[in-house]
Design brief:
By secondary structure, this protein is mainly α. The chain contains 2 helices and no strands. 76% of the residues lie in helices and 0% in strands. The longest helix has 21 residues. It is elongated.
Length: 42
């Protein structure tokens, strides 16, 4: 089921969550730290 109803946004959210999960494997279970790391890289 679509989260936003728009395929492009749903795909972006899905990819972002994949990236966050991969970052959390490296920095630990703190999702906020993963967000900060992702933001620093982007």
């Amino acid at each position: 089921m679509a989260t936003t109803g728009l395929e492009v946004f749903d795909r972006t959210l899905h990819i972002t969550n994949i990236w966050l999960d991969e970052i959390m494997k490296e920095v630990g279970p703190d999702r906020q730290a993963a967000w900060r790391a992702l933001g620093a890289v982007l």
